[in-house]
# Entry
Amino acid sequence: MRRRDFLKNTALASGALLVPAFLKPLEALAKSELTDYKNLVIIQLSGGNDGLNTIIPFGNDIYYQKRKTIAVNQSDIIKLNDMQGLNPNLSALKDIYDQGYMSIINSVGYPNPDRSHFRSMDIWQTASDSNQFLTTGWIGRYLDSNCQTCKNPYTAIEVDDTLSLAMKGAKMKGIAVQDPNKLYQTTREPFFKGLVHDHTAANLNEDNLGYLYKTMIETYSSADYIQKTAKTYNVTAEYPATGLGNQLKTISKFINSGLQTRIYYVSLSGFDTHVGQQNQQGRQLKIYGDAVAAFIKDLKQTGKLADTLVMTFSEFGRRVEQNASNGTDHGTANNILIYGGKLKKAGIYNDAPDLTQLENGDLKYQVDFRDVYATLLDKWLDVNNSQVLNKNFAGLGFV
Amino acid sequence: MNNIRQVKHLWSRAGFGMRFEDLKELEHASVKHAVKKLFGTGSAQPIEVVKVMTDYAVLTKGDATAKKMFLQQQRQEEKDLNIAWFNQMSTTDAILQEKMTLFWHNHFACRSNNSFFAQQLNNIHRENALGNFKTLLFKVAESPAMLQFLNNQQNQKNHPNENFAREVMELFTIGRGNYTEDDIKQSARAFTGYGFNKDGEFVTRKFVHDDGEKTFMGKTGNFNGEDIMSMLLEKRETAWFICNKLYKYLVNEVSDPAHVNTMADVFYHSGYEIRPLLEYIFTSAWFYDEKNMGNLVKSPVEFLVGLNRQFYLTYQKPEVLLQFQRVLGQVLFYPPNVAGWPGGKNWIDSSSLMYRLKIPSTLLNSGLIDFTGKADPEDEAYIATVRNMQPIVNTRVQAQPDWDKFLQGVPKNMTKAALAEFLLEPKPNNGLLNSVDLSANTKAAVIELVSTPEYQLC
# Structure
């Protein structure tokens, strides 16, 4: 098909572009080089997940006093110890927890918390202070750090149509891949082949035009590598037929095929439960719990769980006291859920949230979220956290 | 001598790109004449698509159904406002005024759930886009949208909230490094009590205003908010800060200190008049230096508006424009934070570039789209009320370019190489020229040209 023929029948699909063979610098490595290749999977719950109805402090009477109509009945809660338990919609995670593959970090937040969705998400994604505006994401800056294992343009993949700020560095950016085949097909359309063949060395200068061409070429090359690698492995495990289920299945395919990607990013939205929270949050938690449980079991089966760490966060938790519409409004500190085959401290990592010492009706944070990031950077991604977080954080001991 | 390259550069920076109908008018114009024409393009009308202020009482008093309805209406208004401004930019003759409105929209970046307030602030930006910066600053500082966004409703005597005062200095006027933390504390006191009433009118609530003595930037007095802003404008650093930002918006991402300095002189000595500053920029020889041409990455809005204008696009379902804005990373009225969109290379990643390369042919050939983009975090409350969200699959764009009008404007016997030079700001390379030369006709050549990396620059 000629380029102009393509233009007559164009379809706009996610994916990317092309490069002549002589410019293809990034070839797949042999699988033998890939043993012990550590992966980090980040699951973002958008909208502010209500942590208190996720990991429920049923042992504290205040929980029931403040949440007269939306508290979960004691008898329904899946108890983890005598204070905290899982929301019944997370029942699939019970096994995972019992096997020591899950760690719950309570009361994670930051000083001077912001209750606006976009600002707080910005803070979590850029790892900034609450009065600081950064234009790069923390994973993006990890890519910029140019460490031994993060040089490839496919080092960080977001399984989505578009790329989150978290994944954008000043020099390097992650790549958004919802479906590796679709990405590959799009980049191989004749139109793009034409574009890439037409380019000259002059197009690769340090200026903005050079940057555009470089991005195009890298995407072309990555699309090829990702598709070729991913198709060598078929996921046989069962996954729930949900958006998140499919995304985690795609990540399993990537990990098991030996893709040299270190960070995967996905998001699940629908957690802003101001009204009628129980049903809405329940549905979302079920989607989340079932998908994550399937993913962990799958990786355990294939022997990749020891090399994988999963972190789930949300931009903030919700207020301790419910509102008048059987919902909850924006709050502050929240729990972070970690999963992995080699956790140093599985189970409940620190004390349950203190429901008595509140600040304007909100939980006080006990752990800075950047200490969680620092742990991941230092102990899992092999880069000094101060390089990425702009100052040094002590980190935690969950891994 | 033919100045068309210079005039085209001017139109791409001061407006949203040159159309063939503009070319007809300006073909033989001198730069001076073109600048004059630019300032004579009339004045833009305010946007008045959101008619009444939403009643927020529903959110506290209403039942679940009323709240749901409220959220839906709020969403509809946000959509209407966004599309109304898009249409205005896409069809107006007052290109410079809209382009500067977009600049102030980013400079005084603000989000408001209340579309009536958002519209009001947008009209303040527009009305003063080419006027006086002091007037603009004062009006922005009195707008409910900004007062709410920067928490000044909570800024009260004995309980100061410093957010507003901090951003006025850090982002709106003088910039970092020119004030102390104590200046912020003192000026926050001066803004105490500044807020708005339930009708959305600016009020200074005397009983929560701190009228005591403050020491700000070395001066002591019973300053109020206006005093603080006037003192900030007295500092030449403020003129420099605005000019530096404007230089990056209109001239080059890498600012030239000498040029910014002369701009700051013009701005400061005119008492912060915006129009003479712009005239100075557009008539300066350096504005037309080779290194300042064809090197700025178009923002998604500039990119989409440019296409709308060039091809006289109309949309049966204008909501698709919101979808485009989302996947390209710039939704009007939804800046990422008070610092605005970072711009430049930040616009481009593997997926956004891919969409940019494909959107033109999709629009011009009624193609399909099969992406949704991520929801803005602020949409989460709405999403949580809507069950069973269906992902959008293969939606037809339903956009209609006016090819007749476009092709009528193309000069007779225009070579394909000349076409490339007209539609692209950077110099097209030989490979591209050869490829375009093989295309069947003008229409095919045009679609190819606007689907290139070069077209992303202005």
User: Anything to note?
Assistant: Residues 388-393 of chain B have pLDDT under 50 and may be disordered. Residues 64-91 of chain B form the longest helix (28 residues). Chain B has 23 helices and eight strands.
